[in-house]
């Protein structure tokens, strides 16, 4: 008996995201701002997390650090068991890693203005080596799911802010990333559409096993999330409210 069996821990047992004691300083001397102070968070595959906090508390700084866009000054970030950043030092090719594993939805949709809505979704897949035909099919399905398929061939400038944001959400899901990060993705949407987008993130997390972190000010949709964190003055803490336990 060689002892190798299916009881061997699978790679998926690793948390999807482990952020450990992240600190971020902007500037120096008189103008120094400490935007994150020893912020830590572990997110499991399939978990959908809300990050709340007042303006300027460091939420975007935290999210862009996890998104490998804005490295922390110190602390480590591991994604699916791989240490990707140690302070500002990258341990992997960040651009390639980001493209393969991370979907990001910004406060503003950041669509490419000279590509149609569907091309904006498709391009994420084309860059990952997907065929034109398969990427167009999936882009259309995602847009249909988000209620913007009828605007597929329009340029972003012809779409409302909310429609642009839904295209951006479709784009973030295109490559079935293991980590999805969204910075106030529903700010431009009405309550109903906003809730739909939050529910979609939860569905993607639960069905595809993606780890999702959503920065939000919208307390009305908090029941959709598995875990809620609050950030204040650069410090992250798990929320005391047990949302699943709210009965009223
Ligand atoms: N590039 C930068 N240079 C200097 N200071 C910055 C920079 N980016 C952010 N900050 C500062 O860091 C702190 C945290 O900002 P951050 O954008 O992360 O907060 P936030 O919680 O996302 O805010 P909001 O909810 O308003 O988007 C703020 O004091 C901000 O002014």
TrEMBL record:
CDD domains reported for this sequence: ABC_MJ0796_LolCDE_FtsE
Pfam families reported in the protein's UniProt record: ABC_tran
GO molecular function: ATP binding; ATP hydrolysis activity; transmembrane transporter activity
Keywords, sorted A to Z: ATP-binding, Nucleotide-binding, Transport
Keyword hit for ATP-binding: yes
Occurrences of domain ABC transporter (ranges): 17-246
Signal peptide: none
InterPro entries assigned: AAA+_ATPase, ABC_transporter-like_ATP-bd, ABC_transporter-like_CS, ABC_transpr_LolD-like, MacB-like_ATP-bd, P-loop_NTPase
Keyword ATP-binding attached: yes
GO cellular component: plasma membrane
SMART domains hit by this protein: AAA
Taxonomy, superkingdom: Bacteria
Gene3D superfamilies per record: P-loop containing nucleotide triphosphate hydrolases
Protein name in the entry: ABC transporter
Organism annotation: Rhodopirellula islandica
Source organism phylogeny: Bacteria, Pseudomonadati, Planctomycetota, Planctomycetia, Pirellulales
């Amino acid at each position: 008996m060689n002892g190798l069996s299916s009881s061997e821990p699978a790679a998926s047992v690793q948390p999807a995201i482990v952020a450990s004691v992240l600190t971020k300083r902007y500037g120096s001397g008189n103008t120094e701002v400490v935007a994150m102070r020893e912020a830590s968070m572990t997110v499991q595959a399939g978990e959908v997390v809300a990050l709340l906090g007042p303006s300027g508390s460091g939420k975007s700084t935290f999210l862009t650090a996890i998104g490998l866009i804005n490295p922390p000054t110190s602390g480590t970030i591991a994604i699916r068991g791989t240490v990707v950043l140690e302070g500002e030092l990258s341990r992997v090719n960040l651009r390639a890693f980001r493209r393969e594993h991370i979907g990001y939805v910004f406060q503003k949709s950041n669509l490419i203005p000279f590509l149609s809505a569907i091309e904006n979704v498709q391009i994420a897949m084309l860059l990952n080596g997907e065929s034109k035909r398969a990427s167009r099919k999936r882009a259309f399905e995602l847009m249909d799911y988000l209620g913007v398929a009828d605007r597929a061939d329009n340029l972003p400038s012809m779409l409302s802010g909310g429609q642009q944001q839904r295209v951006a959400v479709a784009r973030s899901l295109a490559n079935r990333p293991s980590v999805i990060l969204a910075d106030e993705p529903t700010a431009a949407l009405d309550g109903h559409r906003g809730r739909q987008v939050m529910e979609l993130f939860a569905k993607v997390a639960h069905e595809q096993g993606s780890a999702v972190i959503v920065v939000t000010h919208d307390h009305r949709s908090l029941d959709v999330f598995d875990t809620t964190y609050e950030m204040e003055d650069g410090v992250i803490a798990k929320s005391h409210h047990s949302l699943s336990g709210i009965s009223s």
